[in-house]
Amino acid sequence: MDMSLEPYDFYETESYVDTLPYLDPVSSGSFVTYDHRTFGDPVNHYFNKVLGVQYLLGDKKTLFYIMTNSVYSPNPTACRKAVEMLSDVHIRRIQNPIQPALDSEAALKLKRIQTWLESQDSTDPDTAMAALHYISLYLFDGGSGAWEGFLKVAGKYVSKILYHGGYTSPLDALQSCSEKDAFVIKTVLWFDVLASITTQRPPYFFSAIDEMFSPSQVRIENEQSSMMNPMGCENIVLWALTKTSELSYWKKLQQARGSLSIPDLVKRAGMIEQYLEHSTSTIYDYDPSLAGFSADKAACSRYHASELFRTSALLFLRSVVSGNYPHVKEIKVAVHDTMACIRNIPPDAEIRRSVVRSTVFSFFICGSLTDDQRNLEYLGRILTHESGGESGVGNCNHIYALLCELWKKRDPNVPGPIEWRECLKQNDSQFLLV
């Protein structure tokens, strides 16, 4: 395939649909159920309609190159099947926004796929990429489901690259590896950290993230090692989220043993908080004073997403220290700052969609820990509006539904803690805040 071609515009045109090689979904063992005569080849549908909403803050050219490299690799089976099924879910959610695309039959099918991926070569980046596509499949269908098994498949490959890839350190691996490997690594690290908020266990890659992004170490970072692309999060904020998740786990262990030292807890939290108090994301070629008027919408979107992640990470940290009590002064301040960032998202439709759909963690923790119902209503309007263009695709509606459930359980006469993390686990399903 001629990779020198300019990629299509994710948002405005379908001009690229006929330039990609055709893969027969029948002979390739497709999992797709929709009528191809109506919607066309599922792989082309993926590149024209799905990829643009899968990683909203990523660089379009880079994403296009990486994904075509996987789907049209010498051994493309894993990724091809994954993008076909992702296209299927995308179309079914648009056709019927109320009805989940993944039923019990699909759950069994996905379990078989997971088992098959686990049996594949763990040194193959396209196996890991396929696993990430299946995580996106759950995210497109509302955000809950058995995504953790696919994260483990992708994590196995990342572990090999970081620790057994012949590099001098995890950071050296991230900076020196191929563009595709770097994407897989950063995506797995991101999912791993946000998944830990649901599982309430430290991130699997806690040590690697601490080594790569700790602000206490002086290092030279390159663009490839920046989490701003494709996640819209500063490295230091990802590090802070990782440390906060681990601190929460440490606190619970100490409480269970009856040995929790509050001064020690406050000291540990203070070492994290100092790096979250001020933004440094203006270094990413975006002038926030031009809010909404920047010619570079991608840079603008990443800036606003990074600010949301920073303020909500601070809110998360303070909730670990003080408990999930909305009336605590420090939590109220953090909620106020997060709401200010949300209200400051530019009105441009493309920027708003990119920021809102990429920062559902921030919306959820803010809506959970606010003590003002007007904030909840405002967040609800934004979340439901951003689901309107592709109603049913994504987890914005589900996020708002969970927030409403949490608020219904509140007793105004008994101002107790808000167990916002517990509600992310429902029966055998877990909700991923990505």
TrEMBL record:
Concerning InterPro entries, the annotation shows: Fun_TF (IPR021858)
Give the subcellular location: Nucleus
Q: Which UniProt keywords apply?
A: Nucleus
The question of whether Nucleus is a record keyword is answered with yes
Q: Name one GO cellular component term.
A: nucleus
Superkingdom of this protein's organism: Eukaryota
Chief site of localization: nucleus
Coiled-coil region(s):
none
Q: Which residues form the signal peptide?
A: none
- PANTHER family linked to this entry: TRANSCRIPTIONAL ACTIVATOR PROTEIN UGA3, ZN(II)2CYS6 TRANSCRIPTION FACTOR (EUROFUNG)
- Its recorded name reads Fungal-specific transcription factor domain-containing protein
Origin organism of this chain? Crucibulum laeve
